Amino acid sequence: MLLGAHVSISGSLDKAVDRAVELGCTTFQIFTRNPRGWKAKPLKPQEADAFRRKMEMHGFEVAVAHMPYLPNIASPVSDSFKKSLASLIEEVDRAGRLGLRYLVVHIGSHLGKGLDVGIKRVAEAVNTALSKVENDVVILLENMAGQKNSVGSRFEDIRRILNHIEYEDRVGICFDTCHAFAAGYDLRTREAVYTTLEDFDNIIGLDKLKVVHANDSKGGLGSHIDRHEHIGLGKIGSKGFRELLHHPALRDLPFILETPVDSKGDFSTNLAKLKKLAK
Fold it and tell me: In degrees rounded to 5, what are phi and psi of residue 110?
């Protein structure tokens, strides 16, 4: 199976591949640059070449980029939206140059202006970015946990965004298990997993689901609390993740950890748990 984690690019981008290998990943996710600022150093050709060479050398067929923290492509504020759009365009380009198949994007917040405004902004940002960057990168909209003013915590809202997308083959979904559970989609049992994914299929379509962010949840079902927990130690639990890993619609998809690093464990322990549950 494609099981991995979000790894650091500290030192140089290609070192992320080394870290993924050391962890025993078969897929991985990175930020292509410092995620806490608006500006990024230009990606040098030799950096991209070194990253791609290591990817090929170690047999990684699927790896994922993640947008930085600051952009909000659902923002109704003109200046913020323009900066977020510029960042999205840049990240689609960088991901393509690094040979990454997917770019995960948080759908964002409408800042109190309403879902209709947020949905329109997201579609505008995605359509504009894809019109300006011609490569094979697929933008993956990540479901939200249902925090105040968030866009895209309900499957119906994501479908509304997709209905406005002009480049259907270049947009998919990243399904975050913690976010889904916090938004009210039960994942604790086989029946719950099958029901939730049946709803996803009926509303969005399982063909749109490309990546799973495997995170247990500190918050309860429908809590709208976006706090990740170690696999099996949160409110979803080991049984839920076993069912997710064995669901026929998910079995071949990348499962990528964004779990905590603390006294209870790290990516290594969580990856071992995923592998055990996947057997």
Answer: -85, 0
CATH code for position 98: 3.20.20.150
> Which burial class, exposed, middle or buried, applies to 183 when counting CB atoms under 10 A from its CB (0-12, 13-18, 19+)?
buried
State CA 37 to chain mean position distance: 19
Three-state secondary structure call for residue 133:
coil
Alpha-carbon distance values, 213 to 93, 112, 125, 135, 160 (Å): 23, 27, 23, 24, 22
Return the structure tokens found at 82: 């323009």
CA dist., res. 174 & res. 172, Å (int): 7
Q: What is the pLDDT of residue 228?
A: 98
Catalytic annotation, residues: 36, 66, 69, 106, 142, 176, 179, 213, 226, 228, 258
The range of the structural domain enclosing residue 74 comes to 3-278
Query: Strand 27-30 to strand 3-6: parallel, antiparallel, or no bridges (unpaired)?
Result: parallel
Average pLDDT over residues 137-164: 98
With bands split at pLDDT 50, 70 and 90, how would you rate the model's confidence at 64? very high
Give CA–CA dist 73/35, Å, rounded. Answer: 15
**Tens of pLDDT, residues 220-261:** 999 999 999 999 999 999 999 999 999 999 999 999 999 999
Q: Which residue has the tokens 């997710």?
A: 244
- Three-state SS for 216? strand
pLDDT for the residue numbered 74? 98
Tokens (6 digits) for 63: 């790896």
Counting the structural domains of the chain, the total is: 1
Place of tokens 């406005």: 164
pLDDT tens digits, one per residue of 95-110: 999 999 999 999 999 9
Please return the burial class of 149, using the count of CB atoms within 10 Å of its CB with bins 0-12, 13-18 and 19+. middle
The DSSP symbol for 265 reads B
3-state helix, strand, coil in the chain (%, to 5): 40, 15, 40
